[in-house]
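Give me the fold.
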Amino acid sequence: MALVGIKEVAEMIGVSRTRADQLSRRPSFPEPKIRHARVRMWEDSDIEAWLDRYRPDWRGESPPQSTNDRDI
């Protein structure tokens, strides 16, 4: 477990710090483990779990494709 701030969150998600801040305020985003004045920190594993759910291709893997009779 590593704690990450908004700068690292932005890097993990691949967006600007401003956009990461916007995303971090959505109800679906993990709650920070540390919230103090102007500092919020998350567990990196919580961010990865959020990415797995909401951006499944973030690891560079293609989502599973369904097969149908024409593909066989």
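The longest helix spans residues 44-54.
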